[in-house]
Amino acid sequence: MQFQKKMIVLGAAMAFASVASAQEVVKIGHVGPISGGIAHLGKDNENGARMAIDELNAKGVTIGGKKVKFELLAEDDAADPKQGTAAAQKLVDAKVNGVVGHINSGTTIPASKIYHDAGIPQISPSATNPKYTQQGFNTTFRVVANDIQLGGALGRYAAEQLKAKKVAVIDDRTAYGQGLAQEFIKNVKARGVEIVTQQYTSDKATDFNAILTAVKAKKPDTIFFGGTDPVAGPMLRQMKALGINVRFIGGDGICSEQLAKLAGDALADGQVVCAEAGGVEEAQKKGMEEFRAAFKKKFDTEVKLYSPYTYDAVMVLVEAMKKAGSAEPAKYLPELAKTKYKGVIGDIAFDARGDLKNGTLTLYTFKGGKRDQIAVVR
């Protein structure tokens, strides 16, 4: 009898273990700069991914008939390419089922080869350099417009709406900043705008007096900056100190309310025009407002920039897994390529390279230290 009791207990324990093991763990990696100058953007993106993971677990998702639990493996790349590739390899070694990230093009591009070689799908929520999806990798996707679209929109706006005639261009020599500047130059030149000077800085610079003095001598009516807000804010302060009171144009890297904090009283109303590689048209506004409210309630902070895109990127990965009936990368990758998903940011579908089809862009200026939307364009 004692033996039989032990067998019954052992059998019950094994049955319980079998039920527990039936709940498959699906690992989603996220990489972004959680330290360094753009840590506020990195944390924003990570929070977007975490929000998606928590919602999926609360719903109790099944894939291929099995209930799954999602885990977020978050890594910090400090916006540094070497740290980015190290973080990518760490996620590969952890056998993640998919990756959302990285944030900036300079880390996303080198990391993408590591994911591709391991056969792991990667969706970037914010890397805009065209090279990312031009490498021939079937594992690379993005849910934002690229620099060709972004630079084109900014170039058209500068020439046609702002009537710019003489433009000075400054970039921070990163893959993002340089790529965006090149696309902007191409577009304004095609519209008869003169580039009076090109100057270069770095994404860690704090003193811009030498290049701004050179810019001032050329008497531009507009300055274009390819870079991010930690550099743009101090640059605007030094422009004011040097008496350079001209329009300042940039991409999504400067298009956050952090810019207003960093620039302070040097930021004049309407002086800055920036474009965010994405945007919500009228039909999606309600959904975005609901997302922002839920995000604020969960994290006690406002959406900074791309957290809705990170959120949607996680959801797109999981939707492909559900359709394939498997979280194995090789099995759900074909479904990912065929994605047709209605997200917070709008309709998401990819072209043959993994670029977002018909991506929107939002043009902003700043008034009273707050972003003020100009228009959503394609």
From TrEMBL:
CDD domains, per database record: PBP1_ABC_LIVBP-like
Pfam families: Peripla_BP_6
Keywords recorded for this protein, A-Z: Amino-acid transport, Signal, Transport
UniProt keyword annotation of Iron present: no
One of the GO BP terms on file: amino acid transport
InterPro entries: Leu-bd, Leu_Ile_Val-bd, Peripla_BP_I
Domain Leucine-binding protein span(s) in chain numbering: 26-369
Signal peptide: 1-22
The family this protein is said to belong to: Belongs to the leucine-binding protein family.
Family annotation (PANTHER family): AMINO ACID BINDING PROTEIN (PTHR47151:SF2), LEU/ILE/VAL-BINDING ABC TRANSPORTER SUBUNIT (PTHR47151)
Protein's name in the database: Branched chain amino acid ABC transporter substrate-binding protein
Species the sequence originates in: Noviherbaspirillum denitrificans
